[in-house]
Amino acid sequence: MKLYEYEPPYLMRINIKRQGDKTEHITICETTQDECLSFVKSLVEEQGLSPFQTGKTTNIEIREGLGADNGKAVSLSFRGLSPSDTYHIIWMRLNDLKKRP
């Protein structure tokens, strides 16, 4: 028999923001911050956004989290996708990965 000791999970918290739009949030587990940044960056690059796109900047912040403690953050900024569109692109890809054996 052993006493239960709670260990908070190591998570990546993704915040997708743009001035004037609702902020979207996704929490991912079983990954590192570098893997998460590479994954999100590749999804944004797949959208074929023009570097000359006009409009407000969408910012994605990826922050490490262990329980209630937040760690360091990395970010990625681009123009051309709203936070809700970006959220759906990430969510759909993660859902597809989950279905694979």
Folded structure, characterized:
This protein has 101 residues and is α+β, with helices and mostly antiparallel strands. It has one domain: Immunoglobulin-like. Helices cover 31% and strands 35% of the residues. The chain has two helices and four strands, in the order E-E-H-E-E-H. The chain has a four-stranded antiparallel beta sheet with strand order 2-1-3-4, with helices on one face. The N and C termini lie far apart (35 Å). The relative contact order is 0.25.
Keywords, separated by commas or semicolons:
single chain; 101 residues; alpha+beta; Immunoglobulin-like; four-stranded antiparallel sheet; 2 helices
Layout of strands and helices, then pairs:
Blueprint (H helix, E strand, L loop, with lengths): L9 E8 L6 E6 L3 H14 L10 E10 L2 E11 L3 H17 L2
Antiparallel strand pairs: 1-2, 1-3, 3-4
CATH fold name, please? Immunoglobulin-like
User: What percent of the residues sit in helical stretches (DSSP H or I)?
Assistant: 25-40%
Briefly, what CATH class?
Mainly Beta
Q: Can you tell me the residue ranges where pLDDT is under 50 for at least 5 consecutive residues?
A: none
Q: Would you tell me the overall average pLDDT? A: 90
Brief write-up:
The chain has 101 residues and is an alpha+beta fold.
